[in-house]
Amino acid sequence: MFARAFQSSLRTPKFRLTPLAVRLLSQETKSAIEQAISSAPVVLFMKGTPQAPACGFSRATIQILGQLGVDPHKFAAYNVLEDPELRQGIKEYSEWPTIPQLYVNKDFVGGCDIVMAMSQSGELSELLESADALVPEEEEEK
Amino acid sequence: MDLTADKLTQIIKERLQATEVEVQDMSGGCGQAFAVIIVSDVFRGKNKLMRHRMVNGALKEEISNIHAFTQKVFTQEEWDEQKKMFGV
Where is the Glutaredoxin domain (chain A) (predicted)? Predict the structure, then answer.
């Protein structure tokens, strides 16, 4: 009975939600995203997995991170195709309309275009270096 | 109302005061994927992330309705340098 009353109150809201309130991220999704972003120094939200990217932009981004020598132990990838809430939520959280999305030390870096431009200019390897996220160079033999 | 390269070019020129716009339809006809180059002095003094956010903001509706959107943005000065360097 309670459930039904609750439902009907949902159908006829006493007040109109503003568009902003409707679009507001649920606290649950938000904290799940925050947890994901803090799970590694380098975090990528992508379509598919690093081994099997499901989109050319995600593939290109993964390739760049690989070429720059990101340490797999300092990297986490989240497949937005596995989780519709994450897929929509991350766009709102980052205020960024497309996937993939790269975070370094919890800071939003950008999408594929930015990652590509920053890798060409050398900015990205500088950023990753300063985040201590690259595979350590092998020590020279003496 | 499907987006075309021409329509998108017009929209970008208006909303971002772009002096040069190049829109490439990468979708093979379905109007779902575009690669754009935007030259505008509204980008002056802004870093890459801020610039892309400006474009994403100005084209919010359009981008949310298509599958893929890739952008390169320059100020007029940067673009002139590109042209000089690469003869594009």
Answer: 42-109
CATH number at residue B68: 3.30.300.90
- A103 close contact with B: CB closer than 8 A: no
Residue A21 or residue A27, greater confidence: A27
ipTM value: 0.78
Q: Report the distance separating Cα B69 and Cα B64, nearest Å.
A: 9
Q: Are A57 and B48 an interchain contact pair (Cβ–Cβ within 8 Å)?
A: no
Looking at the structure of chain B, the number of domains it has is 1
C-alpha A17/C-alpha A73 separation (Å) is 44
Which residue range(s) make up the domain with A58?
A: 29-130
B30 touches A: beta carbon within 8 Å: no
List strand residue ranges (DSSP E) for chain A, in order: 42-46, 75-79, 101-104, 107-110
Is residue A36, in this structure, part of any structural domain at all? Answer: yes
